[in-house]
Amino acid sequence: MKLSSYTSIQNLHQEVLRLMISLLALLLMLAVNTSEASVRATLDRDAAFAGESLTLTIESDGLQSGLQPDITPLEKDFDVLGISTSTQVNIINGQRSDKTLWQVQLQPQHTGLLRIPPLNIGGKQTAALELKITEAPQQASTQSGQHVFVKAEVNSVGKQTYVQQQIPYTVRLYYDKRLLEGELSAPNPDNAVVEQLGEDKNYSTVSNGHRYQVIERHYVISPEKSGSLHIPPATFSGRIAVPERQKRNSRSGSLMEDFFGNSPFSNDPFFRNSLLSDSFFGSNPFGNPGQAITARSQSVDMDIQPRPATAAHNWLPAEAVSVSDSWTDKPPQFRVGEPVSRTITIQTKGLSG
Is the distance from CB of 170 to CB of 214 less than 8 angstroms? Predict the structure, then answer.
């Protein structure tokens, strides 16, 4: 009986010891993660027009509960439109990593080369960033007054473009709060391959006092033959909301108006205001079906140069090319009968993989 009690106490001590060791290991891991925590800041783009909004993303390793970055230094050159917080948890091979992200919506107060100063988060600072703000081009304001319009821009205009060379092509969809739904389609030129680069960018801008949301999408177009290249317009097809009053004016004498017109409620301001409300969705129990709309960008015509006669058989029309190599061992160790790994890397600018 005494031996059994001694054994139970000994097992209990071992369990407590294991629990303390596990707890100590967890505390050490947390201490290491905290010591290695870093903060970073990125912009959704490094150039914008006056009146456009931008998104500054601040990222910190670890879960920063209740912690907020000090964004006071931004108020010198920017209006802070809002800030949101989110967390990310990743578990890879049993290893967990946490991140906290703050997204700050900014609107520049003036043009020029602006600086995002280092921002303080929990005693750590982000690196400074630079942003170029220029006046909006004249053609951007000519579309104001429309609810939806599309612009396209080719960055190779004025330069010689060769066959199989990538042509940077940017599409921007401008829309206001009337837009209900729609789809933006890329151009489909003959004898050329169109590829989309990266994810869409979303921001807002002001044109002639009218605020628009903007979806910016980047493509590259690779011509397959020399000669004339016609890039047709990028096309948006969708629906915009129509105010209820406008719809009723277009079909006067509707059943609802006929019914209420001769009723004792016809002069009641509550019923009249409800019937003639400008709300897009309030009066229609089935929602506002809207009105179909199509918008197109301008087309672009280019002259594509053939491959130069002096070009070698392996034609590589890149803006820049670099070649580097590396060995598994530095420096490599050569032994008779043993393989040695060497990696050769070719990096190009302006070409897909």
Answer: no
